[in-house]
Amino acid sequence: MKNEQIGKATSRVDGRAKVTGEAKYAAEFNVPDLTYGFVVSSAIARGKIKSIDTSKALAVNGVLQVFTHENRPGYVWGDEKYQDKDSPPGSPFRPLYQSEIQFSMQPIALVVAETFELARYGASLVEVAYKQDAFDTNFEANIEKAYVPEKYKSTPPPDPRGKPEKAFADAALQIETEYTHPSEHHNPMEMHASVAVWEKDGKLTVYDKIQGVDNSQQYIANAFGMDKEEVRVISPFVGGAFGSGLRPQYQLFLAVLAARELKRSVKVMLTRQQMFSFGHRPKTTQRLAVGAAEDGKLEAIQHDAFAETSKFEDYSENVITWPGVLYKCDNMKLSHKLVGLDVYTPLDMRAPGGTTGIFALECTMDELAYKAGVDPVEFRLKNYSEKDQNQDKPFSSKELKECYRQGAEKFGWSKRNPEPRSMKEGHNLIGWGMAHGAWEATQKEASAKAVLSPDGKLTVSSATADIGTGTYTVMTQIAADTLGLPLQDVTFLLGDTSLPKSPLEGGSWTVSSVGSAVKAACDKVREKLFKLAQQVENSPLKDAKFEEVRFTDGKISLQQDASKAVTITAALKQNGGESIEEQVDSKPADKQDNYAPYTHAATFVEVKVDEDLGTVKVTRIVSAIAGGRVINPKTARSQILGGMVWGIGVALEEEAVMDNNLGRFMNHDLDKYHVPVNADVHDMEVIFVEEKDDIVNPLGAKGLGEIGIVSVAPAIVNAIFHATGKRVRELPVTLDKLL
Ligand code: MOS
């Protein structure tokens, strides 16, 4: 079919708007009469505000108000229902709730002025006296005090299987490792920002940086005791998020507070430094004890994680579930404990838990493969699992073997000499390493609405987000494909609480969830159109059955005889000049319960390590992905490339450095907090292996937002071992660790 849109490499439908600046991000909604807020951040990590003197700030001409815990109106934080849709168990941080300081850089005041510069200047004049209390931000020192949370945010560790201790003790090969992953902070291009627009009748329109407008709406309604109908949240474009926008951040609360109190519109945008004042990927230490037979066949896996959280919320993520998904082994014991520190609560970051857990698991397995003298790919084939052993369910589909095969072939893996330090080029040691990974392919409940107007133009909508991943584009493709319309006749709307409900855009579930809803809504329009087409005078489809027609090129035609056709516009004429409107709520099919849906990846990496300097260059990455049906090979490839680049950052660069004397992350800007730049990125190739899956959702697509990152860092670290013979077990692998 020449009009097929699904599976076609399609440029972003919002690409032009983005490169011309037409696309507006939260802070760019410069409504008339706007005022500006600037946040004052706590200088201490724990204690109390003894006094806060705002008089000098208020004396500045143009400063309108300074909001603190002292003048916060009593109705705010009234009903205690202030958890948001991504809150971990515990008691969320409430800005300006009290004088208590719970973490360094906690927002303690908002200065609002007629201009941004005046607000910032005013903020510098706020004088704060603190009573400092002892604090503890030292992860290593508290690891032995780690606790099992009452409730996990993530999947709780599954019960042990078999006899892990005995099997380990009896195993011919044993390996015990400890791997550490640092805290990492979100650094999207767009800083967090909210514009709260004060409407005449006291209602609010809020432009927010968020991965789900419903979450901001619910949060504001609860914090301020408002009806949801009084708050409309809009977020048409998000300049990167990947978890940082799952929870409403404190600038949202502050902007709304100021707007309500001043009865003016208020913009609050965080600075790059303040981006380091909220959630981060938690520092995590993992201990693995793995036993295997002489030939490398696994006999026991014990995987224990110790991860940072705040003192007020129990954040956890799926760090230790991966052995049960990725390796067949009858004796397994998995645990995940938390280390409570005086920091802000950690937050989901691209493949939360997977990035961390698969790193430690895959590096440990590389160590074991060496010990067994088995090639790393061979080792993984030997221990291949046909089911998710945590849930004892078969995979809905799993083409990981094909990932190994195609990835290895493209990379040239068969030419590898397994001996460390065996490949050299001048003073560069060359290393080849590999790892595999998985991520959940979840479908959530979602709603969508399709409106086909008499002129044949289709508008489809759902309150989801596009964090740069391509939601606008793939939803447009799915809708166009279902109704056989050209792409330019389809518009997809998102990011507005007035649209049908959608889950948070995260967890790699948007295509699966919202895409299924879009398809279902368009399928209903299809049925209606077919009936209308049959009513057209002398309709060639009069006696046709619905199953016998197809929708393509703006026409409904018989599959057997394309000349028997009715145009969509002709069919629409039978609708009395009215649009066709269909809204559906879609949810996962019951049959999904019996299966474990996952995406898989195999990644092959080449590094060059300068022997004299210890510098590492990742010269080649090949990732083969099994992600079900690929809706758009172009945006899909971009997703995986982005994951690879971030994986380079995880392996070699990213680290938020905590100064335990100050209780503060010190390298809080992009000068000192390193992320990969163009000079760090070399050859990267993405392969999508064919994978059919009719269980995962009606589209057969699995979602690709997170699978691209999980196996990259371990493949790099394994390649560094192959190059140098040094096994670095603490990320990032900076040059000092290689000298
Ligand atoms: Mo993702 S970390 O669920 O945005």
Structural overview:
The protein is α+β, with helices and mostly antiparallel strands and 739 residues long. The chain has three domains: 31-134 and 189-241 and 245-276, Aldehyde Oxidoreductase, domain 3 (Alpha-Beta Complex), CATH 3.90.1170; 280-442 and 593-738, Aldehyde Oxidoreductase, domain 4 (2-Layer Sandwich); 445-587, Aldehyde oxidase/xanthine dehydrogenase, molybdopterin binding domain (Aldehyde Oxidoreductase, domain 4). It contains 17 helices and 32 strands. Strands 3-5-1-12-9-10-11 form a seven-stranded mixed sheet. A five-stranded mixed sheet has the order 19-20-28-29-32, with helices on both faces. A four-stranded mixed sheet has the order 7-14-15-16, sandwiched between helices. Helix 12 (471-483) packs parallel to helix 13. It is globular. The N and C termini lie far apart (59 Å). It binds dioxothiomolybdenum(VI) ion. Dioxothiomolybdenum(VI) ion (MOS) is lined by residues 211, 242-243, 246, 348-350, 352, 506-507.
Quick structural gist:
This protein has 739 residues and is α+β, with helices and mostly antiparallel strands. The chain folds into 3 domains: 31-134 and 189-241 and 245-276, Alpha-Beta Complex (Aldehyde Oxidoreductase, domain 3); 280-442 and 593-738, Aldehyde Oxidoreductase, domain 4 (2-Layer Sandwich), CATH 3.30.365; 445-587, Aldehyde oxidase/xanthine dehydrogenase, molybdopterin binding domain (Aldehyde Oxidoreductase, domain 4, 2-Layer Sandwich). It is globular and about 80 Å long.
